[in-house]
Amino acid sequence: MPTGLKRDLGLFSTSAIAIGAMIGSGIFILPGVAYVEVGGPAVVAAFLIAGVLVLPAAFSASEMATAMPEDGGSYVYVERGMGPLLGTVAGVGNWFMLSFKSALALVGGVPYLVYVAPELAAWILPLALGLAVFFTLLNATSTESTGRLQFGIVAIMIVVMAWFVVGGIPDISAERTAGAFDATSDGFLAATALVFISYAGVIKIASVAEEVEDPGTTIPRAMLGSLLVTTVLYVLVVYVAIGLVDVEAAIEAGQLDPDGEGPIMALAADSALGTVGVVAVVAAALMALASTANAGLMAAARFPFAMARDNLAPDQFEAISDRFRTPVAAIVVTGVAISVMILTLPLDLVAKFGSGFGIIVFVLVNISLVGFREGAVDDYDPTFTSPLYPWMQLAGIAGGLLVFSQMGLVPIVGSLVIVALSLVWYAIYARSRIDREGAARSGVRQSVTERALEQTADLFDEDRRYDTLVALTDDTSERARTDMVRMGADLSRLRTGSVAVAKFTGVPHRAFTGGGLTVSRPGVPDWLSYDEPPGWVAETDWSLTTAGATALRDPASATFDYLEITAENVPEAVVEFSTFEGYDLLVLERRPEELHRRFSSRLTDHVLKNAPCGVLLVEDYGFDGADEIAVVANRGPYDPLKLLVADAIAEETGAELVLLQAVPADAPEQRRETVHDYHVELMRILTVPARSRVVETDDRVAGLARFAESADLLVTGMESRGLRGDLFGRPGDRLVDSVDVTAVMVQPDDERQPGLVQRVVLDKLFGG
User: Fold this and answer.
1) Mind telling me which residue stretches traverse the membrane in this protein (predicted)?
2) pLDDT-derived band at 139, boundaries 50, 70, 90
């Protein structure tokens, strides 16, 4: 999307932005703190392992940046890959994280200033605020000047640090560096978590991707090259520093704070390079921390800018200055926020908040790449692709979560607060302004529908016999029993199966009888007697002709059978008989008074929870054939058995099927299109005419009922047959209760009780 931003950041300037963003606090503030955290020289290994753990996110961000060279970086990737909700979390969180880090860098130079000029201690805050204003104005007036300044600062800093390493190696104490690469030390993971934020700048390149020359080549080289350079520099500098400085002694002497915070690099330079070295290192430290603040402000300002383009933030942040071609409003607001943090927040709190959310961002970046690779994104065409996919991304996710768990209570709570603020912002401001979803969600939905289509096609194609048991009781209504037989016969006839009609009667408990079933085959009852076969059954299949006649074929070839069964416990008898005889479908009358009676023992509930086969509940309002049969998807895609039942009844009656599915009124257009396309594919599988109707409604039951009411038959499903359904009701039952239409509720034999996670996922993917 053209925005007017100038592409004037080359490879060296782009690399300098990342190196400058990483190298400041990592070298000059955190080594002493991490040394105390790990309890020894293993801080060197902590820096090395942290760099390795960041590598997957660097590869992921490099790939996505070449496919989407837009300002906003990791926010853009998470928003496009995971959807606007998580995109908001990533955008707001990144903005906070980078603003925190910029504030940390500006205040973090305090110990170095005091070390060389104690009289400046009173000017610390004014100087920090002055630098914040300076960098805000610089970023607002020229991105190109910012990149050139960044390159100059980084070049000087690397030269000084190289001098420090070379000059300090001869004076290293082997005793102080013993165990520097021991990853088994106590507190190692906590130290790794602490220094993790040192590498956050590696993906900041992507936040200015829209201003990078030749992004397809420049971004991967700059991102991966800067990570390699910075990791090597960290390991060498920290190794030399702890080899030169006795950290415990420095703390006792008051040169470092008890937590290790202080000018550790100045102390190391003093012992190896003398006064000139100290001046050079302090100057490099101040430049490096200024560089971090500058790069952080530049990158942070691009997040509200990018969010505004996606309608997740006010339009003012998207405005580009006609004179300077920069997002002035976003830069100014970010500069003000950094100034407020300098004045109000403790240094350690700023660092911990930034670290915690930095890890979350890296995890989200890796997840987003998986979303793009596996999702339905036609125009995702990166110039650079991450190697070892998906194992590298999975390793990055696992490593990030492991490190995050070691951060401690404060950063974890701080991160959760930022997440909560992001969710509130999304709910109040952004949700009503968007009409899209992420690649991962779209991809998962497509995968689910493809799997459902495959299962449906397999069921329709298989040569399987369906034997049906129509279970009657003394409470079964007269109007329902014939239609129950009719519906059971439809499927069994098409599948060359048989239909058994069984009347279950309860008898009082009798001692010493064993409580078993008694099965008999009396004469055919009047309601099943016909002078000639009914129109809904083929003549060659019919053998029940007149009341009182033998009327039953040889059991080996009988299509219909009538039985009477007595038992002390009718619900258990229905399940036991259908299990022993191996029926494929069990047909019962739906009795609303049973279904809505909470926490009681009843036939329907027991059968639905324990039946070994598919179950059909029939609620009859008089079924004399059908011209239109509404087939409703309750959660996610259609269950294949539901479609098979509806298709069989429609073939016997000559009816047309209406595939009826609801999506939220504010659902993204691509979701409606996905559902419609799914219906089109189902129509290719069905054997009868069908059409699609996607209902846009915020009240699923009411919206579906409005269209189902006009049908001659409603075929729907069942769910939540447990405590949750008892407490909060069942959407399928509410739909059937709300229409005066004969209904068939279908429960497949392999999915009687969907789990909570499955219900939530399907609701969010297809209806929520």
Assistant:
1) 12-36, 42-61, 82-100, 120-139, 151-169, 189-209, 221-244, 264-289, 328-347, 353-372, 384-403, 409-428
2) confident
Among the candidates 416, 433, 450, a domain finishes at 433
Question: Does residue 616 fall inside a structural domain?
Answer: no
The residues, any chain, with a CB within 8 Å of residue 273's CB and separated by 6 or more, are 163, 164, 167, 168, 280, 281
Residue 651 and residue 604 share a domain = no
Tokens of 69: 């060279």
The values of phi and psi at residue 663, to 5°, are: -130, 155
Higher pLDDT, 123 or 99: 99
CA distance 722 to 725: 5
Tell me the CATH number at 533.
3.40.50
Q: Output the CA angle 297-298-301, nearest 5 degrees.
A: 80
Both 355 and 478 in a single domain? Answer: no
Query: Which DSSP letter does residue 525 get?
Result: P
DSSP structure string for 558-609: -SEEEEEEEES-HHHHHHHHHHHHT-SEEEEE--HHHHTSTT---HHHHHHH
Q: What are the φ/ψ torsions at residue 582 (nearest 5 degrees)?
A: 70, 40
Structural domain includes residue 615: no
How far is it, in rounded angstroms, from Cα 546 to Cα 235?
A: 95
Residues 605 and 682 reside in one and the same domain: no
The residue out of 610, 639, 670 marking a domain boundary is 610
Of 633, 745, 746, nearest to 692 by C-alpha is 633
State pLDDT tens for residues 193-251.
878 878 877 877 776 677 777 777 888 888 899 899 899 999 999 999 999 999 889 88
CB 563 within 8 A of CB 520: yes
- The whole domain housing 118 covers 11-433
The SS3 call for residue 735 is: helix
What is the rounded distance in angstroms from the CA atom of residue 23 to the CA atom of residue 223?
14
Asked whether 45 and 180 are in contact (CB, 8 A), the reply is yes
The overall longest dimension of the chain from CA atoms, in Å, is 118
Q: What is the pLDDT of residue 691?
A: 93
Residue 754 and residue 656 share a domain: yes
pLDDT band for position 601 (50/70/90)? very low
Number of domains in the chain: 3
Answer for the pair 193, 355: CB distance below 8 angstroms, yes or no: yes
Same domain, 520 and 541: yes
639 SS3 class: coil
pLDDT, position 435: 65
Which pLDDT score, from 0 to 100, does residue 172 have? 92
Model-level pTM? 0.60
Residue 1, in any domain of the structure: no
If you count DSSP H runs as helices and E runs as strands, how many of each does the chain have, helices first? 29, 11
Q: Within this chain, do residues 559 and 670 fall inside the same structural domain, yes or no?
A: no
Q: For residue 285, is pLDDT > 80?
A: yes
Please check whether residues 364 and 498 belong to one and the same domain.
no
Is residue 352 assigned to a domain?
Answer: yes
Nearest-CA neighbor of 81 among 363, 498, 497? Answer: 363
| 573 and 647 together in one domain | no
Per-residue pLDDT band at 396 (split at 50, 70, 90):
very high
Q: What is the CATH number of the domain that holds 699?
A: 3.40.50.620
712: Cβ contacts below 8 Å, ≥ 6 apart: 623, 625, 626, 627, 628, 629, 655, 741, 742
Q: Does 176 have pLDDT greater than 80?
A: yes
Asked whether the beta carbons of 579 and 587 are under 8 A apart, the reply is: no
HSE (side-chain half, CA atoms, 13 Å) at 303: 26
